[in-house]
């Protein structure tokens, strides 16, 4: 069972982020003296990316895990970074470079932030299963993903490019 304080913090997550998105839009509107349509905002992003801007859909997706672990910088830098993509797209059109001079202008001029292309947040790698397959070569060991291992179980064959023999499951399963 979670403590009430932790639950409240999780509910506040989208509220703080949405408030920051709105503040970024208001800054851009004051700077460019025009209105911008607000995006759909979602927390449905996993993996290494902190945020993604879907330009044609006017949508922002954020990584909740990286947000929780880096909240202050995430709200300041990552949210502005992604909003700047949408603003640049709406001002300058679809042919601009993602982190080009137009986007950099918005980061520096509107938000007064450094135009960093990538975050430096620590990303925890999830554990993955590897199924070890062998061929006739002396060093012929091939770690297969669970998906590829399942394809073999369904009858698919994979071959070694060097010795051209069919790869065979060794029975060894590793978790990395």
From TrEMBL:
<feature type="binding site">
    <location>
        <position position="81"/>
    </location>
    <ligand>
        <name>Zn(2+)</name>
    </ligand>
</feature>
<feature type="binding site">
    <location>
        <position position="85"/>
    </location>
    <ligand>
        <name>Zn(2+)</name>
    </ligand>
</feature>
<dbReference type="GO" id="GO:0008270">
    <property type="term" value="F:zinc ion binding"/>
</dbReference>
<comment type="similarity">
    <text>Belongs to the SprT family.</text>
</comment>
<dbReference type="Pfam" id="PF10263">
    <property type="entry name" value="SprT-like"/>
</dbReference>
<dbReference type="InterPro" id="IPR006640">
    <property type="entry name" value="SprT-like_domain"/>
</dbReference>
<feature type="active site">
    <location>
        <position position="82"/>
    </location>
</feature>
<keyword id="KW-0963">Cytoplasm</keyword>
<dbReference type="InterPro" id="IPR035240">
    <property type="entry name" value="SprT_Zn_ribbon"/>
</dbReference>
<keyword id="KW-0479">Metal-binding</keyword>
<dbReference type="GO" id="GO:0005737">
    <property type="term" value="C:cytoplasm"/>
</dbReference>
<feature type="domain" description="SprT-like">
    <location>
        <begin position="19"/>
        <end position="170"/>
    </location>
</feature>
<dbReference type="Pfam" id="PF17283">
    <property type="entry name" value="Zn_ribbon_SprT"/>
</dbReference>
<dbReference type="GO" id="GO:0006950">
    <property type="term" value="P:response to stress"/>
</dbReference>
<protein>
    <recommendedName>
        <fullName>Protein SprT</fullName>
    </recommendedName>
</protein>
<keyword id="KW-0862">Zinc</keyword>
<dbReference type="InterPro" id="IPR023483">
    <property type="entry name" value="Uncharacterised_SprT"/>
</dbReference>
């Amino acid at each position: 069972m979670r403590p009430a304080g932790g639950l409240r913090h999780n509910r506040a997550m989208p509220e703080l982020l949405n408030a920051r998105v709105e503040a970024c839009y208001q800054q851009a509107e004051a700077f460019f003296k025009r209105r911008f349509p607000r995006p759909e905002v979602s927390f449905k992003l996993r993996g290494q990316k902190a945020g993604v801007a879907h330009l044609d859909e006017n949508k922002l997706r954020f990584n909740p895990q990286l947000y929780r672990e880096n909240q202050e910088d995430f709200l300041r830098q990552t949210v502005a970074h992604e909003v700047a993509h949408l603003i640049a797209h709406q001002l300058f059109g679809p042919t601009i470079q993602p982190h080009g001079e137009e986007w950099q202008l918005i980061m520096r001029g509107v938000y007064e932030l450094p135009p960093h292309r990538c975050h430096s947040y620590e990303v925890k790698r999830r554990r993955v299963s590897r199924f070890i397959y062998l061929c006739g070569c002396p060093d012929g060991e091939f770690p297969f993903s669970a998906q590829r291992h399942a394809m073999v179980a369904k009858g698919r064959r994979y071959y070694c490019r060097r010795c051209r023999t069919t790869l065979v499951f060794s029975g060894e399963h590793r978790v990395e």
